[in-house]
């Protein structure tokens, strides 16, 4: 097997990268000690520690890529645009298109110290701290949706209007392409969503696309959100799609998904969904949030599409995670949650 000439484990590649960053990034001085993050990044991500500070490097993966996948230039663009806004993001420091450095484009951002929590039940925190971090997340999401996209140079970051129509069509196609067995819950969602579109006029804001606790860096006690990460799916769209996705755990069983169904959230200090919706509505100036079932159902539908794709790739032997097969099997469970939700609405 031929050695990868751009493998960051090789000292000569690290030396080339360090020399480049010393020229391109003010204040960067080597040597740099590299550590690769291994949890869930579709784009290879590394921490660089120097005597003068810490940085994070994110690069496009090597090999043939799907169209519109791994667009790290968009990630860097949105980080740069949000820097002056109230939305907490790492500092965007440098973008490099020169493939002679690491084989693919990459960007450098500042490292943000803090905690990353992976379980929305927040077992590490006290009841008061759990309540606080849940409200801080809503405040962060509301701040994102209040950004004036034209003022920060993101007016052309996506297509205005028609967001749900496009998304339903795209994720239905993706699901069909990855389909292995018939999932009745997904069939129900595919039929129900186009027939039950929200009656309120669609708003267009910047949306994250994957806004959840584990994509944020928080203070260790949950008192603040210090940075929102992983902007790969960001675009312009309906902000309630972000909110529905973020609050989807209120509908998921605790045993299979670490959700809130089946546990006493009040005893744990976790706020009820209605409290969080009211908080978001106040922050964004909405008189009410209507058609809520649709927004959550869409989030569940999209999650089934993602999980089914993971499952199909695992069956083909080309999944990126050793847990892909187990995770992908949960597509049916998520679809069942969605079907129960829309059936309860009637």
Automatic annotation (TrEMBL):
Q: Which residues form the Aminoglycoside phosphotransferase domain?
A: 35-256
Q: Which CDD domains match?
A: ACAD10_11_N-like
**Molecular functions per Gene Ontology:** transferase activity
Q: What is this protein called?
A: Aminoglycoside phosphotransferase
Task: Output the lineage of the source organism.
Answer: Bacteria, Pseudomonadati, Pseudomonadota, Alphaproteobacteria, Geminicoccales
């Amino acid at each position: 097997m031929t050695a990868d000439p751009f493998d960051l484990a090789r000292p000569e590649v690290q030396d080339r990268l360090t020399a480049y960053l010393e020229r391109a990034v003010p204040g960067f001085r080597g040597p740099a000690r590299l550590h690769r993050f291994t949890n869930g990044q579709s784009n290879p991500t590394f921490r660089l520690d120097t005597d003068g500070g810490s940085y994070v490097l994110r690069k496009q993966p090597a090999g043939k890529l799907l169209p519109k996948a791994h667009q790290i230039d968009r990630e860097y663009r949105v980080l740069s645009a949000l820097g002056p806004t109230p939305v907490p993001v790492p500092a965007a420091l440098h973008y490099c298109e020169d493939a002679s450095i690491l084989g693919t484009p990459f960007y450098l951002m500042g490292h943000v110290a803090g905690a990353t929590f992976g379980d929305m039940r927040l077992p590490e925190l006290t009841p008061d701290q759990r309540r606080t971090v849940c409200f801080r997340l809503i405040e962060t999401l509301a701040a994102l949706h209040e950004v004036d996209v034209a003022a920060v140079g993101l007016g052309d970051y996506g297509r205005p209007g028609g967001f749900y129509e496009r998304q339903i069509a795209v994720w239905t196609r993706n699901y069909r392409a990855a389909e292995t067995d018939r999932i009745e819950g997904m069939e129900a969602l595919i039929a129900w969503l186009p027939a039950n579109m929200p009656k309120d006029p669609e708003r267009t804001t910047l949306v994250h696309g994957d806004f959840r606790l584990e994509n944020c860096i928080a203070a260790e006690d949950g008192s603040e959100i210090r940075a929102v990460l992983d902007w790969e799916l960001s675009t312009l769209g309906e902000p309630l799609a972000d909110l529905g996705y973020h609050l989807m755990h209120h509908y998921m069983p605790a045993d299979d998904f670490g959700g809130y169904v089946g546990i006493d959230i009040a005893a744990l200090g976790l706020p009820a969904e209605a409290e969080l919706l009211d908080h978001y509505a106040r922050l964004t100036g909405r008189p009410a949030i209507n058609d809520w079932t649709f927004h959550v159902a869409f989030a569940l539908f999209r999650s089934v599409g993602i999980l089914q794709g993971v499952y199909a790739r695992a069956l083909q032997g080309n999944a990126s995670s050793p847990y892909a097969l187990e995770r992908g099997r949960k597509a049916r469970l998520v679809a069942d949650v969605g079907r129960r939700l829309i059936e309860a609405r009637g």
